[in-house]
Amino acid sequence: MTRYLIRRLAQSILILFCVTVIVFLFINLAPGDPYTQRLDPSVSAEVREEMLQKMGYYDPVPIKYFKWIRDVFRGDFGYSIKYKKPVWDVICERLPNTVLMGAGALILSTAIAIPAGKTSATKRNSVFDYMGTVLSFIGISIPAFFFGLLLIKWLSFDLKIFPISGMVTVGAGYQGWDFIKDVAWHLVLPTVVLALLQTATLMRYTRSSMLEVFDHDYIRTARAKGLSEAVVVNKHAFKNALIPIITVLSMQIPTIFSGAVLTETIFVWPGIGRLSYTAILDRDYPLIMALLLMTTVIILLSNLIADLLYAVIDPRIRYE
Amino acid sequence: MKKDTDNGTVSLGSIAWRRFRKNKLAMFGVVVIALLILMSVCAPVLTTYGRDDIDLYNIEAAPNSDHLLGTDELGRDVLTRLLYGGRVSLTVGLLASVFEIIIGVSVGAIAGFYGGKVDSLIMRITDVIMCFPFFVVAIALAAMIGPSMMNLIFIIAILEWTKIARIVRAEVLSIKERDFIQAARSMGLSKMEIIIKHVLPNTFASIMVFATLAIANGILTEAALSFLGLGVRPPQPSWGNMLSAAQSMRVLQYEWWMWIPQGFLVFITVISINFLGDGLRDALDPKLKI
Q1: Which residue would you say has higher pLDDT here, B284 or B92?
Q2: CA B42 from chain center: how many Å?
């Protein structure tokens, strides 16, 4: 297990290294550069030259790369061109908002999809199963942003139940408990939109994973020795069906970050998804680099955790 | 049982077709897709308006007898643009899927068949591509190389081929241990010949199912990127870039014809393709995990 852990970590670090190289080349080959934009355009040509020298504008690309990596390890991601603040500060302001929405979506989709998928599988070919299958097809086929726009039109404009956009009511200046309620109210629609796709995928996987387990001999044995159906489903079948479900759950984390870009854009939610989109449009290179690096690290970590969870859940897996 | 050849055997294809025909949802998908393709191909015949005909006296008109789905912010007929937009959206999905399969299948087959260092190198490359957040990288690429239909196809293909590569690799790994491959080897066929003539035909079911899902995904990605203004560029219409009209609060609230039919078409196309893909999987090989 320890050996497997070390190998898996080494592999992740290698991938991370490749990712940093690609991100770096990507940004450095892009039109415009992160150096000249930091300069005050009013300074004289010589001062400008000198400052560019100092910033490393004329360094060869590998040197630039190592300087960047060194700074990243010190927690220095550079200076955002647009926000005129350290990149790290800009990200820290937004990250909690995305985590809030993402965690909400993850909890919501798991809470709906796993019981629904389980019921679908146990009552195969029932009305519930049929409805569930069609609903999950709708969930994976409707563009999430279009679903969001429909919800805004219907629930916010027409029925005026939920706020149209943003995270807090502008100008209300709520404090304490009222503030939490206000944010929660704004959180509902974006969370539902972000959870939609995940709920649909997770439900399909739970259903097919359960169905596959039902085919095994040990389920027949469990039934034959007179266990109640609830025990067979929950203890014998579900535990074994969990393994592929975990893979899907860990794959949801990248989907949240991808999905957040559009969801946050249409709901004007101040998270890192919308930040990535505006940073790209503004060509705010230091910010883009930091965001890409951060999201890939999160994705790599979630893959790693999923692999380790397998070992915890399934004692048959022995990593050599 | 109907026999479809004179030597009395029933081909695998006809068994699959018989199973497929029984699947109502899949047949629904086929009919809808056929209709949509027909409508977008015959666009010039079905409408009297030109794709970019501007009518400034008739801006954002609600649906009426002249304009069945109203007009947009430049007075162009929405229905006409929807028909032409279908061409773009369907083409993006189809071509992106074709390129994904060309790259993914060749890379996956090489990795699986040759194994060893080639395999681990290719697999690490797919690892790296797969751990990027798709959407962020896609918009970054689109902003860098510029928004256009061909660039969009390129971006989708270059970021999405890894999935089919992994599927094909896994299948090739198990196929190459089978006896008929040993036989082909001992007959002295070259590796390339074995891959193309004996290994790949056995991965056909997976590739077909993946292809349909990839088309659906491509259409969704086109819609999303064009909605953000990073995909197909106006005046060329696509369902996605027409949807971006809904970014205006006024359009979203009062002018449903400028965005709801567009989104509905994306949805109905994608769900039909998904039904079709699901039907294909059940017909060809229900055990496939795609």
Answers
A1: B92
A2: 21
Checking if the pLDDT of A32 tops 50, the result is: yes
> Where is pLDDT greater, at B271 or B1?
B271
pLDDT at residue B8 in the model: 60
| Cβ contacts of A295 on chain B, cutoff 8 Å | 132-133, 136
Q: How far is A287 from chain B (nearest CA, A)?
A: 12
Helix (H, G, I), strand (E, B) or coil at A297: helix
The count of CB pairs under 8 A between chains A and B is 113
Q: What is the mean pLDDT of residues A48-68?
A: 78
Q: Does B99 touch chain A (CB under 8 A)?
A: no
| Chain B: closest CA distance from residue A146 (Å) | 6
Q: Residue range A237-246: average pLDDT?
A: 83
ipTM of this complex: 0.88
Distance CA A156, CA B26 (A): 36
Nearest-CB residue to B253 (from A137, A138, A153): A153
Q: Domain residues of chain B, as ranges?
A: 25-58+67-283
Alpha-carbon gap, residue A247 to A244, rounded angstroms: 5
Across chain A, mean pLDDT equals 85
- CA–CA separation, A251 and A94 (whole Å): 23
Q: Which of B128, B228, B275 is opposite residue A18, by nearest beta carbon?
A: B128
Produce one character per residue of A93-106: b if its CB has 16 or more CB atoms within 10 Å, e if not: ebeebbebbbebbb
The more confidently predicted of residues A271 and A234 is A271
Structure tokens at B256: 């449903």
Tell me what pLDDT residue B3 has: 46
- Please give the CATH architecture assigned to the domain spanning A94-313: Orthogonal Bundle (1.10)
Per-residue pLDDT, B7: 60
Indicate the domain borders of chain A. Answer: 2-73, 94-313
Give the integer Cα–Cα distance in Å for A156 and A165: 9
Residue A86 φ then ψ, to 5°: -60, 140
**pLDDT one-digit tens code per residue, B174-189:** 888 888 888 888 888 8
Beta bridge mates, A86? A79
CB contact set of B190 (below 8 Å; sequence gap of 6+): none
Burial class (CB in 10 A: 0-12, 13-18, 19+), A206: buried
Q: Which CATH number fits domain B25-58+67-283: 1.20.1050.10, 1.10.3720.10, 3.50.50.60, 3.30.1330.10?
A: 1.10.3720.10
Q: Tell me the β-bridge partners of B235.
A: none
Residue A143 has its nearest CB partner, among B124, B132, B267, at B267
Q: What is the pLDDT of residue A294?
A: 87
Res B1: pLDDT: 43
- CB contacts, 8 Å: A292 with chain B: 132-133, 136-137, 140
- B131 in A contact zone (CB under 8 Å): yes
Chain A nearest-CA distance from B256, in A, is 9
